[in-house]
Specification:
Blueprint lengths: L2 H18 L1 E3 H8 L3 H13 L3 E4 L2 E4 L9 H5 L2 H12 L7 E4 L3 H10 L6 E4 L2 H6 L7 E4 L14 H7 L4 E6 L3 E2 L4 E4 L2 H11 L2 E8 L10 E5 L5 E4 L5 H10 L2 E4 L4
Helix pairs in contact: 1-5, 2-3, 5-6, 8-9
């Protein structure tokens, strides 16, 4: 079987589990039109990549325990973040060089990317490193400096300098908020500096943001949506924002349930 066909089927497995929370191998086989043995082989690989969890004959998306400050954000808009991550997974090819930022949406992207082969990843997120632990052939570089224990990431000066060492093909990052006028916002200057350093190391900048952040009023700005190459979101963007993005070549990809 061609690897593209294999990846497409496994993408569909993740999408079905996103929609249904829990299914059996027999359920998945019936919906995808393949044998139970084929699905079980897929599930073994997805389990090894830390994407799914099998228990008592059923399978569900894996949910990692997080520290108390990070956990509420993991649960918020979880379905939307998984849908965004599915889109991002299909933007990244085997062997790509990728910079990953911080936050729960980017962590979901890292989980989905764990099935890709031979990635070279630079990140300032310990959560992203953990999500990529079983990615086949992956090489992961982690920023140094002081760990922000609340979120298990690094956003200080050492982190900012870290990304300048790399020439990446893609940068995947999120933000704290998105104004109704298309401004990309965050909570403080340190967050802005960290994300700017990520975007400056890559040819293609991919902003991932769920609708819960849309209309959020935050004090710090890091530009506008249309300054990036790709925006993956389920936020209700206005016609004016879409027109501005189209004018600059920014591609907006809607993250929606199949």
């Amino acid at each position: 079987m061609k690897r593209d066909d294999l990846n497409i089927r496994r993408d569909r497995i993740i999408a079905l589990l996103t929609e249904n929370q829990e299914l059996s191998a027999r359920d998945l086989a019936a919906q995808l039109g393949v044998s139970v043995q084929t699905i079980r082989a897929d599930l073994r690989d997805l389990d090894a990549a830390a994407l799914v969890q099998r228990r008592n004959g059923a399978v569900r998306l894996r949910q990692q325990s997080e520290n108390i400050a990070y956990l509420p954000r993991v649960g918020a808009s979880r379905l939307a973040k998984q849908q965004i991550a599915l889109v991002v997974k299909n933007l990244v090819k085997d062997g790509a060089r990728v910079a990953l930022g911080t936050g729960t949406t980017v962590e979901q992207c890292a989980r989905m990317l764990a099935i890709r082969q031979n990635l070279f990843v630079a990140t300032n997120s310990i959560h992203a490193v953990h999500a990529l632990q079983n990615a086949p052939g992956a090489v992961v570089e982690l920023a140094g400096g002081t760990v922000r224990l609340r979120d298990l990431d690094l956003i200080g000066a050492a982190s900012a300098g870290f990304f300048s060492r790399f020439r990446m093909e893609q940068a995947i990052f999120s933000c704290g908020g998105l104004s109704e006028g298309g401004e990309v916002l965050d909570y403080n200057a340190a967050e802005i500096v960290a994300r700017q350093s990520i975007t400056e190391c890559a040819r293609e900048r991919i902003l991932v943001v769920d609708s819960a952040k849309f209309g959020r009023d935050l004090p710090c700005r890091m530009g506008h949506l249309w300054e990036y190459e790709v925006v993956v979101t389920n936020a209700p963007l206005s016609a004016d924002i879409r027109d501005r993005c189209a004018a600059t070549g920014c591609r907006i990809i809607a993250a929606e349930a199949e």
